[in-house]
């Protein structure tokens, strides 16, 4: 049997009765471990070797652990100093003991935190009292020394040393090989090593030796190891597609902060400050200083809208409104805060109609997690500013948008929002379950929202769920399989976004 040099050498170094590691074989035959492993796998494909892989854990002493091997554990040094000072008879002030034990900096806290835990004594009001203990039998010191000598130790003690950062564990995969019956037969019948080249190199081309060498044959049907290269997340791919569609419809993308003042998240949307949705049960409040500056003119106008309403028929809420609450910072529960910033002229200056803006960004809500809800999600925010807009314009925009994704069975249902009137929710049919799924909310911004922001024409707006759109397009039934801590990695590796 003819085999390439490396394969022949690996086969000759393998044994039918002993499992030998690829690394040892590589050292024996004088080739890199990677080359020996490749040769072993190729021989396994031909049925001449059995290759078994197992994980080995190695334990080594860290730099801090080595320091304590040389100097002693801080708690042991403190105990010895305490006994030398007579603390096993009467309490001794801690200060002199720390000096005697040569403890300073972080080592002091380490010694104090482990002193009582190990039963070396007690510390009360700055005085140390030593117990009757044997520091020479300290299990952690003994285990640390054992690791340094390459010996085994109790797993529980090793876990403690690892938590203290004195040792570290590392895993590596070890491949071991044995000859199969076919391999033994091949060796008995004789194996001839052939110098074959498996790739064309620059040196071969430059020297012209490629004309004389024998090239290895390639088995295009041979099994190849699975590879999972980096790829775009299906949800991100869907977001990029949404952006392409909206830009194609004449919209411009907007951006803004994820953490913002309640003023922009809620107050500008004519959401009363005593509304249940503004409690910690729905919002994620941040323990940070309040927003320092709010635009005075917009702030005053928003407060008037809340207190008095807008226009001759406006009545306001007759409920408390305070600037202190308006300045508090939350994670935005929707991306309509970006719309408020743009309409108020804060983000890009004053805007004259017609205007079309959108964003595809994250929002955060304290929702109960289920197949269609997560604590964070992507919202497709959009609005159009123009004269005399109507619900018909809004519905037509949705029909055009969703048609780009093959969704033509939209349903609309009237609803209530504090910031839009009229308002309606959108629904679509799930392609697998047949369930009618809510996919967004929309409406025409109310005068109580637009007037304080300085807008004197119609604005139609919406917030659509990117994850729900993806579910309708791909047939995914549980958003937790796609996005979040329980994500299905196999789904992410194989799923393609379909439009």
Itemize the secondary structure elements and their pairings.
Blueprint: E1 2-4, H1 5-13, E2 20-21, H2 22-29, H3 33-45, E3 49-61, H4 63-71, H5 74-84, E4 92-93, H6 94-100, H7 106-115, E5 121-124, E6 127-130, H8 139-148, H9 155-163, E7 167-179, H10 181-189, E8 192-194, E9 196-197, H11 202-207, E10 214-215, H12 234-248, E11 252-253, E12 259-261, H13 262-265, E13 284-285, H14 296-308, H15 323-327, E14 329-331, H16 336-343, E15 355-364, E16 376-386, H17 391-403, E17 411-414, E18 420-429, E19 436-445, H18 447-450, E20 458-465, H19 466-474, H20 489-494
Parallel strand pairs: 1-8, 9-10, 11-15
Antiparallel strand pairs: 2-7, 3-7, 4-6, 5-6, 12-14, 13-14, 15-16, 16-20, 17-18, 18-19, 19-20
Helix pairs in contact: 1-2, 1-3, 2-3, 4-8, 5-7, 8-9
Family: Belongs to the class-II aminoacyl-tRNA synthetase family. Phe-tRNA synthetase alpha subunit type 2 subfamily.
EC number: 6.1.1.20
Domain Aminoacyl-transfer RNA synthetases class-II family profile: 242-494
């Amino acid at each position: 049997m003819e085999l390439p040099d490396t394969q022949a050498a690996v086969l000759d170094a393998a044994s039918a009765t002993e499992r030998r590691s690829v690394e040892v074989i590589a050292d024996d035959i004088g080739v890199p471990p990677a080359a020996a492993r490749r040769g072993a796998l190729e021989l396994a494909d031909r049925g001449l070797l059995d290759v078994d892989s197992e994980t080995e854990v190695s334990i080594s002493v860290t730099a801090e652990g080595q320091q304590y091997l040389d100097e002693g554990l801080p708690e042991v040094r403190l105990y010895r100093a305490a006994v030398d000072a007579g603390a096993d008879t009467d309490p001794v002030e801690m200060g002199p003991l720390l000096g005697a034990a040569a403890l300073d900096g972080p080592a002091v806290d380490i010694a104090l935190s482990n002193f009582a835990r190990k039963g070396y004594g007690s510390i009360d009001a700055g005085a140390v009292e030593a117990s009757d203990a044997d520091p020479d039998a300290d299990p952690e010191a003994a285990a640390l020394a054992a690791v340094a000598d390459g010996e085994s130790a109790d797993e529980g003690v090793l876990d403690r040393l690892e938590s203290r950062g004195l040792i570290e564990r590392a895993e590596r995969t070890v491949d071991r090989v044995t000859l199969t019956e076919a391999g033994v037969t091949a060796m008995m019948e004789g194996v001839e090593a052939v110098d074959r080249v498996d790739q064309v190199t620059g040196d071969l081309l430059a020297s012209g030796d490629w004309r004389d060498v024998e090239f290895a044959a390639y088995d295009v049907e041979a099994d190849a190891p699975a590879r999972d290269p980096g790829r775009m997340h299906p949800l991100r791919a869907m977001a990029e597609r949404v952006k392409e569609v909206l830009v194609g419809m004449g919209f411009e993308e907007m951006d803004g902060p994820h953490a913002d003042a309640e003023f922009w998240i809620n107050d500008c949307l004519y959401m009363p400050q005593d509304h249940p949705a503004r409690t910690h049960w729905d919002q994620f409040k941040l323990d940070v200083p309040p927003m320092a500056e709010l635009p005075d003119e917009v702030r005053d106008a928003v407060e008037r809208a809340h207190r008095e309403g807008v226009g001759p028929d406006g009545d306001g809420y007759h409920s408390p409104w305070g600037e202190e609450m308006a300045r508090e910072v939350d994670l935005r529960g929707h991306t309509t805060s970006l719309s408020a910033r743009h309409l108020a002229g804060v983000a890009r200056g004053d805007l004259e109609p017609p205007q079309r803006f959108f964003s595809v960004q994250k929002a955060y809500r304290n929702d109960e997690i289920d197949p269609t809800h997560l604590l964070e999600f992507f919202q497709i925010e959009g609005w159009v500013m123009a004269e005399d807009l109507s619900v018909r314009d809004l519905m037509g925009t949705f029909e055009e948008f969703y048609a780009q994704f093959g969704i033509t069975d939209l349903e609309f249902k009237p609803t209530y929002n504090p910031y839009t009137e009229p308002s309606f929710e959108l629904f679509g049919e799930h392609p697998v379950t047949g369930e009618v799924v809510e996919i967004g909310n929309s409406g025409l911004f109310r005068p109580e929202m637009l007037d304080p922001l300085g807008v004197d024409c119609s604005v139609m707006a919406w917030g659509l769920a990117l994850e729900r759109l993806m579910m309708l397009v791909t047939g995914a039934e549980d958003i937790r399989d796609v996005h979040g801590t329980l994500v299905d990695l196999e789904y992410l590796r194989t799923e393609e976004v379909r439009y």
